[in-house]
Amino acid sequence: MTLFRANLSGAHLKEASLSSSLLPVANLSEADLPRTNLNDVYGITQEQLNSTCGDERTWLPAGLTTRRCKTEPAPDDTVIGKQAE
After folding, report:
1. Structural domain of residue 7, as residue ranges?
2. Per the structure, how many domains does the chain have?
3. What pTM was computed for the model?
4. For a disulfide at 43, which of 21, 24, 53, 77, Cβ 3.0-4.6 Å?
5. What's the pLDDT tens digit per position in 33-68?
6. CA 11 to CA 76: how far, in whole Å?
7. Could you tell me the CA-to-CA distances from 34 to 48, 53 in Å, in that order?
8. pLDDT over 80 (residue 82)
9. What gap in Å lies between CA 15 and CA 25, rounded to an integer?
């Protein structure tokens, strides 16, 4: 799936599977990503994820992180993101 320059700003993508998608230049600002699979997404950057949030079941490409969504119970604002091994 190609989402080049897609505007996903503020999108609630809970439990979405975007694995193997193309997301270069997509606007993900303030997107909610709990339980979302972004593993193997092509073209996604840390800059795109900086204003997103997820939970401990959000799958991200190696080396990328997001913050915990405020709606998810947590003791703090831990940076989270599962990564495939």
Report:
1. 1-85
2. 1
3. 0.76
4. 24
5. 999 999 889 999 999 999 999 999 999 999 999 999
6. 23
7. 16, 7
8. no
9. 22
